[in-house]
C-alpha cells in the first residue's frame, strides 16, 4: 500500500503546478466527456459523471468548461470521439504499472506511452499482464488535521468503508466503488474535507524499491502522469520511508 500512497501524495503536490498549465483541466474534460457519453448527462443517474464534475470543481475548472465537456459527451457538441484504453506493463525493478488512457488517436498514443516505458528501462506488456494484481476501490484521502483516527474509523465504517490507513499526513479510507458516494456524503455531512476522492486501482501486493531504483520509478510515473492522454497511473511499488526522505 505504501507505493500507492507515495504516488498519491506526489500527485497532489503536482496537481497545483499542473493546474496552472491547464493540464488538469484538459484531463478532467476528457473524463467528463467519457462519463457523459457512456451514462448520459443526468447527474442523478450517472455516478461516474458526478465524480468527474466534482473533481473538476475541486480544481476550480470554470462552469462553462464543464458544461461544454458534458455536451460533447452527450453529442450536443462535436469533440466526444474519445476511446478508453488500459495499457499495462513493467517499470524499473519489476514494478507493475497500469495506465488508464483516454485518446482520440490510439495509433499516436500507444507508441508515445511505449517510449516512456522503454526510456525508463521498462516494457509495455500485453493486455491483462498486470491488471490482475490490482483491485478497484473507492479511495478518499483525508488530512489528519481534519479528524482523529478513531473518530474517522467509526464514521467511515458506518458509511460502508472497508479500511482506514494512516499514511504520512493523511488517512486513506478505502471502500467498494459503489460505496464511495455514501462515504463522500458522510464525510461532507460531518464537515470533513477530503484532499481527493476517486475510484483507484489498488495493488494487492507491493514491490519494495531500492534507493537506486526509486528515482527511476518516480521519473517514469511522472512522465506517464504528464502525458496528455493518460488519465490515471497506478503501480505496486513500495518506497521505504527512509529512501523517500532522501528523495524529497
From TrEMBL:
Domain TACO1/YebC-like N-terminal: 5-76
GO terms for MF: DNA binding
Keywords (A to Z) from UniProt: Cytoplasm, DNA-binding, Transcription, Transcription regulation
Pfam families noted in UniProt: TACO1_YebC_N, Transcrip_reg
Name of the protein in question: Probable transcriptional regulatory protein HG15A2_37970
GO biological process: regulation of DNA-templated transcription
Highest taxon of the lineage: Bacteria
Keyword Cytoplasm on entry: yes
Family listed: Belongs to the TACO1 family.
Family matches, as InterPro entries: Integrase-like_N, TACO1_YebC-like_2nd/3rd_dom, TACO1_YebC_N, Transcrip_reg_TACO1-like, Transcrip_reg_TACO1-like_dom3, YebC-like
Transmembrane parts of this sequence: none
Compartments reported by the entry: Cytoplasm
Native organism: Adhaeretor mobilis
Main location: cytoplasm
Amino acid at each position: 500500500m505504501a507505493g500507492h500512497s507515495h504516488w498519491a501524495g506526489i500527485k497532489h503536490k503536482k496537481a497545483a503546478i499542473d493546474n496552472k498549465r491547464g493540464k488538469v483541466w484538459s484531463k478532467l474534460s476528457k473524463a467528463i466527456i467519457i462519463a457523459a457519453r457512456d451514462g448520459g448527462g443526468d447527474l442523478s443517474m450517472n455516478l461516474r459523471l458526478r465524480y468527474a464534475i466534482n473533481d473538476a470543481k475541486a480544481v476550480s475548472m470554470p462552469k462553462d468548461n464543464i458544461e461544454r465537456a458534458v455536451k460533447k459527451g452527450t453529442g450536443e457538441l462535436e469533440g466526444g470521439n474519445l476511446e478508453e484504453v488500459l495499457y499495462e506493463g513493467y517499470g524499473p525493478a519489476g514494478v507493475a504499472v497500469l495506465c488508464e488512457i483516454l485518446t482520440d488517436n490510439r495509433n499516436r498514443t500507444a507508441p508515445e506511452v511505449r517510449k516512456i516505458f522503454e526510456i525508463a528501462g521498462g516494457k509495455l506488456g500485453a493486455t491483462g499482464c498486470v491488471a490482475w494484481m490490482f483491485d478497484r476501490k473507492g479511495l478518499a484521502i483525508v488530512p489528519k488535521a481534519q479528524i482523529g483516527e478513531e473518530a474517522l474509523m467509526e464514521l467511515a465504517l458506518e458509511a460502508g468503508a472497508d479500511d482506514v490507513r494512516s499514511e504520512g499526513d493523511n488517512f486513506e479510507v478505502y471502500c467498494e466503488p459503489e460505496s464511495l458516494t455514501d462515504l463522500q456524503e458522510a464525510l461532507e455531512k460531518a464537515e470533513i474535507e477530503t484532499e481527493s476522492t476517486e475510484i483507484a486501482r489498488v495493488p494487492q501486493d507491493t514491490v519494495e524499491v531500492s534507493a537506486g531504483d526509486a528515482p527511476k520509478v518516480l521519473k517514469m510515473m511522472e512522465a506517464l502522469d504528464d502525458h496528455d492522454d493518460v488519465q490515471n497511473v497506478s503501480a505496486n511499488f513500495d518506497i521505504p520511508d527512509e529512501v523517500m526522505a532522501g528523495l524529497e
